[in-house]
Amino acid sequence: MAETAAHSALDPLEPRELVPPHHTDRTLNDTLLDYVWQKPGKGWFMLFGISLCLLSLLVIGLTYTVAKGIGTWGNNQPVSWALEIVNFVWWVGIGHAGTLISAILLLFQQKWRTSINRFAEAMTLFAVMCAGLFPLFHTGRPWFAFWLFPYPSTLGAWPQFRSPLLWDVFAISTYLTVSALFWYVGLIPDLAALRDSSKTKLQRILYGIFSLGWRGSGRHWHNYKIAYLLLAGISTPLVVSVHTIVSFDFAVSLLPGWHATIFPPYFVAGAVFSGFAMVITLIVPARKYMGLRDVITDRHLENMNKVILATGLLVSYGYMMEHFIAWYSQSQYEIWTFYVNRARGPYWPVYWLMIACNVITPNIFWFKKCRTSIPIMWVASIMVNIGMWCERFIIIVTSLHQDFLPSSWDMYAPTWVDWSIYIGTLGLFGTLFLLFLKFIPAVALSEVKEMQLELKHAAHAAHAGHANDTAAAGTLTHGAH
């Protein structure tokens, strides 16, 4: 009974399924800090070189855009929003898993977030940085971007606060700021651990500066816990609000395919769906080559696959409701958009690829064998991200290229500049992520140690309870005699 009570006081998942009990503080230090101190291997340099090559495409594409104008993109009339906004929504969605894993699961005291939250938080920051480039350059004059902020204007020209595009500016900047603070506060104890284990004076100085004088005192831990919980509470509504505001870019218009009240929850579910898929895509190879299988266990991966399944079902429900409302309303424009243009129109391969990746693929996770198979989940996560990119393409391009006026219909095709900017942001993301893996512990060392300590206390309580039960049984037996 005492053992059951001790386990029930913990997370529904037993900690020994998340951290092997044979680890000590010393072995956890060696496991989680070793990759930072060792020299980069050939694989890291190869991936870093590929990322830099892709990043050069971003520099070329943006430089050419600034020099020649956005007429170098494939945008036309009526498709004035095209690949850049597709990529913007895609990257913002990928950034949602970090806040969900870190903030919401922390508030709900879910222990399985511990080993994966650092990965997800870093992914959030880098994805939002990539996303911010697209609307900035889509304005055509990024050097006037400060006009979007409500500074005192001597010309009397103020931003149009009724425009959802301006809401994006505030939503994305707030999301990036809070996410960066949340990520950095969680890093402070681990940066201090790196400072204390530094082997050179330069390393000690740099990590010492960024650890902000952390000494691990009771006062430091008290302030750390309060700040971390406050930032988690602030971050939680951002998960819902940010992608809701992104969906308002479309939902507040009158265009068939966009004018839908289901867009806010449907976009939020899709964002978490794609975000968790990207975490799986990144964490599976990193877990293998960084030797983190003991702290990022199969149970962590299985739980993330369950979230992908749940959010995939929500996305599928959103698709069904869009088609149902189009039929139920009997609006000829909505029926044309959903039943003719998207499913059988010129972009039908993209539409059916979206259905295959977003509707069919997640359902394999109903089966435990698929949820726990590393190759299957990794391939499935890549397919989900492809499907979510296709979804954003379908929403934006197919709704625009055939609008209310048939005489203005036109096809859209991205140019090499569009593709170079998109591929370049993949390079930017990869470069930042590889630098993160090399210079910062990829797993939150202090939180894993805390869970390990909790496991030991639970084992001790269970052992003490078992001893008490044995003693009580002996006493009863002796009394009976």
UniProtKB/TrEMBL annotation:
Domain of life of the source: Bacteria
Subcellular locations according to the entry: Cell membrane
Coiled-coil segments on the chain, per record: none
- Membrane topology annotation: Multi-pass membrane protein
Keywords noted in UniProt: Cell membrane, Membrane, Transmembrane, Transmembrane helix
Recorded hits in Pfam families, A to Z, give: NrfD
Which residues span the membrane? Answer: 44-67, 87-108, 120-149, 169-194, 226-246, 266-286, 307-328, 348-366, 378-401, 421-445
UniProt lists the family membership as follows: Belongs to the NrfD family.
Q: What is this protein called?
A: Polysulfide reductase NrfD
Which classification does the entry list for the species?
Bacteria, Pseudomonadati, Myxococcota, Myxococcia, Myxococcales
